[in-house]
């Protein structure tokens, strides 16, 4: 574990990585990756052949003040944008005896997501465990299985996660002319104009799967799929 990462964060991160490997066995896991040319850093990225899952981790030592901007940045580059919060962020809410997690002074309460995220299903809670007195009313106990985004392209803004050389290689693979000294902005516009959502999605995934990263699974070279 890198020196800059706390044991508290490492604990949550390890659990998330294990879950992603179970959900997407063929995906490449990448740690700490910029969401754009100079934007937010994503804690975890799982990149399959045509799918990107982004995850923000909030351990018991973190704060939630930047979560909104972090979620917005992840939604620009991924099919799934998730935040896994330590249970310390749960808040007590009055409820009835059927949905209760505990009783205090004759009043029933449940633990729920923090204010502003109560009904946001992209916010998951760590650890996975039963908290409710009645197991049938424990929606936060388990992380849900992730739907596979069939025929769903990545957002057009997902191209911003690619480096200059990756954009140029993708243009070459797709037969898109960009000139001798292309800029990131010019290549991004050309790709959006000339390529299909399928081509862009497969191409972006291919570039991320093959990228040399400081902390990630070994690179996977399957860029031929981008041109299928």
How would you portray this structure in words?
With 228 residues, the chain is of the alpha/beta class. It contains five helices and eight strands, in the order αβββαβββββααα. It is elongated and about 75 Å long. The protein starts with 6 loop residues before the first helix and ends in an 18-residue tail after the last helix. The protein folds into two domains: 131 residues, 3-Layer(aba) Sandwich (Trna Endonuclease, Chain: A, domain 1); 72 residues, no CATH class. The C terminus is likely disordered. Strands 1-2-3-4-8 form a five-stranded mixed beta sheet, sandwiched between helices. Strands 5-7-6 form a three-stranded antiparallel beta sheet, with no helix packed on it.
Which percent bin holds the helix content? 25-40%
| Strand neighbour order, sheet with most strands | 1-2-3-4-8
Distance between the termini: 38 Å
Radius of gyration: 20 Å
Structural class: alpha/beta
The CATH class of the largest domain is Alpha Beta
> Structurally, how many domains make up the residues?
2
The overall pLDDT average reads 93
Shape: elongated
Query: Could you give the count of β-strands?
Result: 8
Concise account of the structure shown:
The protein is of the alpha/beta class and 228 residues long. The protein has helices spanning 7-23, 67-75, 164-173, 184-194, 197-210; strands at 28-34, 41-47, 52-58, 80-86, 91-94, 102-104, 107-112, 123-126.
Features:
elongated; 228 residues; 3-stranded antiparallel β-sheet; alpha/beta; Trna Endonuclease, Chain: A, domain 1; 20% strand
């Amino acid at each position: 574990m890198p020196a800059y990462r706390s044991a508290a964060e490492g604990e949550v991160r390890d659990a998330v990585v294990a879950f992603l490997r179970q959900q997407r066995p063929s995906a490449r896991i990448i740690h700490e990756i910029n969401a754009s040319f100079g934007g937010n850093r994503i804690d975890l990225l799982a990149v399959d052949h045509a799918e990107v899952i982004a995850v923000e981790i909030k351990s018991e030592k973190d704060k939630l003040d930047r979560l909104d901007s972090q979620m917005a940045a992840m939604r620009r580059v991924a099919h799934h944008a998730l935040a896994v919060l330590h249970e310390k962020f749960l808040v007590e809410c009055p409820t009835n005896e059927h949905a209760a997690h505990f009783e205090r002074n004759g009043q029933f309460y449940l633990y729920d997501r923090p204010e502003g995220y109560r009904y946001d299903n992209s916010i998951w809670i760590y650890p996975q465990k039963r908290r409710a007195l009645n197991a049938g009313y424990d929606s936060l106990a388990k992380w849900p299985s992730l739907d596979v985004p069939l025929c769903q392209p990545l957002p057009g803004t997902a191209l911003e996660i690619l480096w200059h050389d990756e954009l140029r290689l993708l243009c070459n693979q797709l037969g898109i002319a960009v000139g001798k000294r292309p800029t990131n902005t010019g290549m991004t516009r050309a790709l959006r104009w000339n390529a299909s959502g399928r081509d862009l999605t497969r191409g972006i995934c291919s570039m991320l799967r093959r990228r040399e990263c400081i902390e990630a699974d070994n690179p996977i070279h399957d860029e031929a799929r981008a041109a299928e």
